[in-house]
Sodium/bile acid cotransporter 7 (Paraburkholderia bryophila), 341 residues
Amino acid sequence: MARPKLLPDNFTLCLVGTVILASLLPVHGQAAVGFNWLTNVAVGLLFFLHGAKLSREAIIAGATHWRLHLVVLLSTFALFPLLGLALKPLLSPLVTPALYAGVLFLCTLPSTVQSSIAFTSIAKGNVPAAVCSASASSLLGIFITPALVSVVVTNQAAGGSSPWHTVGNIVLQLLVPFVAGQLLRPLIGKWIERHRGVLKFVDQGSILLVVYGAFSEAVNEGLWHQIPLSALGGLLLINVVLLALALAVTIFVSKRLGFNRADQITIIFCGSKKSLAAGVPMAKVIFSSHAVGAVVLPLMLFHQIQLMVCAALAQRWGARDTSGEKRAAAREGSAAAMVRR
């Protein structure tokens, strides 16, 4: 039986189910303490496996394209925060202050890695450059995101600790396991490549654990009593506007700066997307526990919207590139036939 086109992917369904489960059966008390420890272990394992998976050769292959990487990083860490702040007077009345704090947090996050590379590949873009840009964005985000949050998110949801203390926590929980995985890559890298399903399981499983713990805490604090249904509709509109503006700007800038088609595709997909895999663990470290649920809600919604929109764009551009190659091959074949005559 074919899967309905409008049905979300399994991971999205699991996210929705996790939020529902946390709303009906939130973890609390001593169980919450043990669950928090389990979540920290899962997140550390996730970044360890990502470090072991990352190919140094692929990074070196794309690292020389500095103009492209600079445009992607500026889009990720400058354009998005500026859009979030500039649109705040217009869009913040549509949602609660806690939800808009989540929108601003979303704007500070690094780009995705797996989906940016996958969509770039489908659309016939510059895949080595996408690997480099997305990976660099993910690594730099460990340091840049906490600093941006301290400037952009002026809300009680943010934790009271200094940005440097936050960076230290993120380095300990995320970067140290990542570096350990990268150092052990010569020993376990081939095993990771052969068992990609393990990484996918840990990747998605750790996110679901963090989401369940975050929403449990938020529900215990009365999350759903504080967010009206109209605010969820407003949040959907805000996310659509943010993604549309990011796509429009990256398309315009990449063309204006004279990048070829393959590089334009890489800039668009790497510069317009935000990482759920990095964002959820970072929110857990940066924000106070009772605020994490409301903060990650905009990111979860944006994640699904960006996947749907970028998947459609990638399929369209990839098909256009393939049809162009076929026409060129047909022209060459006709020219060769005329020569033979």
Q: What stands out?
A: Residues 11-332 form a domain with the Na+/H+ antiporter like fold fold (CATH 1.20.1530.20).
